[in-house]
Amino acid sequence: MKKVVIIGGGFAGLNIAKKLSKSSSHQVTLVDQHNYHFFPPLLYQVATAFIEPSNISYPFRKLFQEKGIRFFMGEFQELLPEQKKIVTSSGSLDYDVLVLAMGAETNYFGNEEISKNALPMKSIEDAVEMRNHILLQLEKAVRAESAAEKTRLSNIVIAGGGPTGVELAGMMAEMGRNILTKDYPEANFRLGKIYLVDGLKTLLAPMSQKSQNEAIKVLKNLGVEILLDRLVQGYDGKEVSLSDGSKIEAATLIWASGVMARAVEGVPKDAVGKGRRILVDAHNKVNGLDDVYAIGDQCLQLSDVKFANGHPQLAQVAIQQGDLLGENLINVALGKMMEPFKYNDKGSMAIIAKFKAVVDLPKGFFKGFFAWLVWLFIHIIPIAGFRNKAKLAFNWLWSFITNDPTLRLIIRPDKKD
User: Fold this and answer.
1) Among 11, 155, 288, 387, which is 20 to 30 Å from 295 by CA?
2) Is 185 helix (H, G, I), strand (E, B) or coil?
């Protein structure tokens, strides 16, 4: 049996692992620094205390029971292609075939001040930290004596007007409208605002103009301050500096403004392209390396005619690449040829606020409550584990009916030396 080592348990890694688990010619080992798979599109709902982290996460070892997939917990450190070996924080692993599927991480564009003081949202830990931080600022705002200090502690600036930024702004605006007055009757939070800042002239840039206009309309109706055609240039923990020279006093800056692929020590420098993405051929094989493949957000494939500049870093691309590479590796073991990857764009969607969403399809557009239901349905289906789907559906339904979820807990682990 060929030893296939997959690094990263996101959409791409999980899908190829499941596909290869059906093959008698491959022994699959999945490596991840966490012991669970999670669903990134719903991180913002964990960050806003709307759902629990356990609703969108599932342990790998539970997931792989009776599937023949092995799990190795460790953080990737280095690739040694000459020895066909990888080095992790927990030891080394040999491979016959290596699949890099570590995804992307937050890109601060070299701004150390923002990196130090802003809140990212790429992991479960990030989402829980954001929830804790926002709730702590509200507690401080209750005790603040001056109106100016209440405003600073209550202000939230979100950098990035893509789907993540829009979803966060909408959910936080709903939270401010429906929850704050009930939770903090002794305080006046009307002084605080949610600011959504983006360097482009519109929100949801990759989507249709109809979706962009709907997002701006709904968020403005919710009271979100939308600042377009300007960038966040600095943040010292108290004041956000914008590229037009203006400043916003705020205790919270959420950074949803860009990502870059995770670095892989050992990949040839000429095989690394824009955004640190690894250059691959039509079959996702890394340029210049044998038996090493890259899929999902981590790769840059320029062979697809319809996506000459590379595929968007979306879940659907990762899922489709994982499925096809799994099939291709099985076909190679059977003496068959590999099929080149071609992305089937099924459309895109974004939730804006309660009962408000937009959906772009290849041949159409729709919005509103029906779009919200479609978004809800599409995002529940991929969640790992039936129990998680049932819990998530119930929690969502209850939270939307009551406008008052009970997850606003400030839980900080005791940090010991």
Assistant:
1) 387
2) coil
